[in-house]
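subagent[fold] <- orchestrator: predict structure for attached chain, return C-alpha cells only, no commentary.
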Amino acid sequence: MPKPALPNIRRLALALLGLCVFVAPARATPAPLDSAAEVSAFAERVRAYSAASLVRWTIIAPTRAEAEAKIAAIVDQLPPDERDLESRLIAEGEPDARGVSAVVTPQIGSTRGGACSWQVWVSDPALPAPDGQTAMTPLASHDRLPVGPMATFRVGHFGLVQSKLYAFDETRPGEIRDLSTVSDIDIPVPKTRSEDYIVLAAARKPAPFLEAVKSALAASQGERRDLGPEYALRERLLGAGRGIGANIEAVPSSMIARRNVTVAAAKSQAPDEPDALMETCLFALTPEP
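subagent[fold] -> orchestrator:
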C-alpha cells in the first residue's frame, strides 16, 4: 500500500491542530500595565466596569510601592467625577512579578444594592486573570456587567423552599428564554452581542404573568423565543425606560409595595387575589466595549 505524500500529512496535521485550538476553552491572562498606553487602556476598562459593583482589580508589581504608584497613574487617567473608582483598585507586591499587571478580583459576600436571594456568577475569558485561569465574578442587584462573546453565567437561589421561582433572560422586549430549562449549567451569553437582562423572581404563590411567560416557553427547551411585546418582562416589571433595579415588585392593586423589602399584602381588598412577587431581581449583561 503506497504511503501518503508528506505534504498531505502536514496539511492534515495542521488542520487537526487548528481544530484543537478552536475547541480549546479560552483562558485569560493578566493585563499588562508597563506602558503609558496600557495604563490608559486599563483606566478605560475600569470605567467600563464601574456599574459592576463587586468587580475589583488587583494591581500586581514586584513591590507594593510600585503597585501603589501604578494605581496613582491609573487614577490620573480617570475623569475627576469617577476617581472614586480608586477604591476598587488593590495594590499587591509579588517579588517574582515580571513588570506590572492587573487581574480581576471579585468581592465576595457584599449585597451592595440590596439583599437578593438569587446569585448570578459570570465567567469571562475576556477579563484579565492569573495565567491559565478564567475569571469569575458575582453580580449584585442593580449591576450592569460588560461581557465578552465567550462569557457564561450561572444562576442559583437560596430563598424559602416554599417559593415559586422564575428565571428568565430577555434581549429585545419579548425575546425571552426560560433559564430553568437551559441544559447548560454554564449558560452562554447571547450570540447576538445585544444587552441581556436576567430577570429572577420568587413568589409565595404563582405569579399569573410570569406563569404565562413560562407556559409560552414550555416547548422551547431552553432556547430563546420571540413571544412578542405583550410578554416583555422589563416593561411589565419595571416600567419602560426605568432602567435596572432589584427588589422591584410587580403588584396587583391589593398590594402595598415597599422599597427594597418584600411586598406586604393589604388586609383589605379581594381575598382571592394572588400574592404579589416577594422579590424581583434584575441584572444586565452588556456587550464588552
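orchestrator: received. Logging for downstream: The first helix runs from residue 6 to 23. Residues 254 and 268 are 7 Å apart (CA to CA).
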